[in-house]
Amino acid sequence: MKTRAAILREVGQPWSVEEIELDPPKRGEVLVKMAASGMCHSDEHAMDGHIAGLVPPAPMIGGHEGSGVVVEVGEGVDGLEPGDHVVFGFIPACGRCASCADGHSNLCDTGLVTFPEGTQMSDGTARHHTSDGDDLGLMCLLGTFAEHTVVNEASVIKIDKDWPLDKACLLGCGVVTGWGSAVYAAETGPGDYVAVVGCGGIGMNAVQGAAMTGARAVVAIDPVEFKREKAMAFGATHAFASIAEAQAAMGEVTWDRGYDKVIMTMGTGDSATLGEAFNLGGKRAKIVVTNLHSTAEGSVDVPAIMLTMFEKQLIGSLFGSANIRKDIPKLFELYIEGQLNLDDLVTKTYTLDQINEGYDAMRAGENVRGVILFD
Fold it and tell me: Do 186 and 123 lie in a common domain?
């Protein structure tokens, strides 16, 4: 079938919206008509080359935060049928590898191995092709910047049909990643002091997660005033424009103890900023690194003596250390119950043809999250 998609033709170039050829789903795969796709910073990393080697080479279809309606299922698909409403998890959960069996499906072996190729998990071939016949890779094996896509059932979570699909897309990456970074990776608890560095789509949900656990203080750090103001509405108790400002106020905010949890959710991480943020942590602090660093950055610079003397912990977190099959439905239920704010995360919606306009707004700090809505 013919459909349209936003293609990265060359690193550093804008997204190109084109007609593509899409094959029907094979065994274990589903064809989905997209309803909405979040515009995450990770796709920007793919476009600017910061995560080269972790994503498919150009040409590739972007997008990994999406929701839609199942149109067709391939042979052997169990539990999904045409008409089902679904959310994609940007890391598939095969349910069979050692990581999945150990309860860490966010580290699913199958998904992480096939990410760089961007082809189907089942047989390593492509279902998406340019109009002149070239194979197209898929960001996170999904390619949600398309009107239709074919994905493996391991990446698909069925949701209730009365849940709004324009909000559902946010659960595929940013919401669970941010919330889980605070709740699971940082293990934030009542009375903790928490600092969140970077308040975009992931950081705002780290703020929400920390506030929901009963943290005593949740400090939002971001240079953009608009985001600092939004963070206060999502549960932050204080907001600062820089780590240096937060450091200067640390005595007053934390009774000179330092922060128990420091959560890194910047657009792009870098060694110098991580080293600066490391100093915000007090004794036995957990410093959680959720934001991506460039694959060209071979090391990070932190005061190693404090790992021992203060028993600080440097912790990496992928997808908020969460589980797509448990946590996507759970967080949507919290939204339905009025305990989780998804509505105010979406700053502006766009059509597929406006994708580059949306990423311009993200770079300018104008959006917490932009969302593409499909007809």
Answer: no
